[in-house]
UniProtKB/TrEMBL annotation:
SUPFAM superfamilies: Thioredoxin-like. InterPro entries: Thioredoxin-like_sf. This is (2Fe-2S) ferredoxin domain-containing protein. It comes from Candidatus Lachnoclostridium stercorigallinarum. It comes from the Bacteria.
Length: 80
């Protein structure tokens, strides 16, 4: 599963660094390093979203740092 987190300036200001850090910890905690490919990418062109732009296998989501764990459990762990 490919998970891409926007690290462009707008998403950086919305907390992309925190989202990335939490995602890395959750992937490691759940032992999914061989099933989840975490990536960073510059602007995805969806800056009007309220949270950080995250794609899971091409499907776009908007994730706030405080929602990262819930998002991970629902969208990543649920698919893995």
């Amino acid at each position: 599963m490919r998970v891409t987190i926007c690290i462009g300036s707008a998403c950086h200001l919305k907390g992309s660094r925190e989202v990335i850090s939490q995602m890395q910890a959750l992937v490691a905690e759940k032992g999914l390093g061989n099933r989840v490919d975490l990536n960073g990418a510059f602007c995805s062109g969806n800056c009007v979203k309220e949270g950080v732009c995250v794609t899971v296998d091409g499907e776009l989501f908007s994730v706030k740092p405080e929602e990262t764990r819930d998002f991970f459990e629902r969208e990543i762990l649920g698919r893995a």
